[in-house]
Amino acid sequence: MSTPLRLILVDDHPVVRAGLRALVGGRPDMTVVAEAATAGEALRQAAALRPDVVLMDLQLGDGVDGAAATANLLTLPEPPRVLILTTYDSDEDIMRAVEAGATGYLLKDCPPEELFRAVHAAAAGETVLSPPVAARLMGRMRGPQATLSAREVEILTLLARGLANKEISRQLFISEATVKTHLVRIYTKLGVDSRTAAVHAAVERKLIRR
């Protein structure tokens, strides 16, 4: 059996953390190694324990929000993947989190199985969006402005070749956070929620060639 994914739960509500811990506790493929109520505590825990994934709320108890906490976590020598898990779904919240480097964005009312799949996808470096989040961004970006930019076509082409986010960032000389931001925009423009679906949609629409 593979080693369980190591998680840190970051939320300023103890009841939410307890619920998440109980949810994860019965699974052999992941384990909670720490909890934190503030951004500072999350940074200290992540530096000491080097988790695979941090589940991060957007509103925290020390005045530093989840987007800023995410950016701080990604400065660590061995940064974790950060998966936002929140009740906030405004366009601004979503884009700030993704631009800070979050690997994914889920809403707290998502089904448990969706959360578990997202944790594994985040650990693998895949961009993950809850369907309501993807739909919200797609609605915002519908219309003439929804055409893909030259950079987005480049990224799709590299996705079709099977390159991971880190490889794409190296090839295009941009940061991984920038790659993730482009992926979110690509997903919303194409009306999809995964890398595979994005490539399939782009090939179908003759935006790229395999």
Describe this structure in words.
With 210 residues, the chain is of the alpha/beta class. The protein has helices at residues 14-25, 39-49, 66-73, 91-100, 112-123, 131-141, 150-160, 165-172, 176-190, 195-204; strands at 5-10, 30-36, 53-56, 81-86, 104-107, 128-129. Helix 2 packs parallel to helix 3 (66-73). The longest helix is centred in the C-terminal third of the chain and has 15 residues, at 176-190. The chain is globular, with a radius of gyration of 17 Å. The mean pLDDT is 87.
Uncertain segments are none
Q: State the major sheet.
A: 6 strands, parallel
Helix share, percent = 40-55%
Biggest sheet: strand arrangement: 2-1-3-4-5-6
Q: How many beta-strand elements?
A: 6
Separation, N- and C-terminal Cα atoms: 35 Å
Q: What would a concise description of this structure say?
A:
With 210 residues, this protein is of the alpha/beta class.
Summary keywords:
210 residues; alpha/beta
Task: Summarize the SSE layout with pairings.
Blueprint: E1 5-10, H1 14-25, E2 30-36, H2 39-49, E3 53-56, H3 66-73, E4 81-86, H4 91-100, E5 104-107, H5 112-123, E6 128-129, H6 131-141, H7 150-160, H8 165-172, H9 176-190, H10 195-204
Helix pairs in contact: 2-3, 3-4, 4-9, 6-9, 7-9, 7-10, 8-9, 9-10
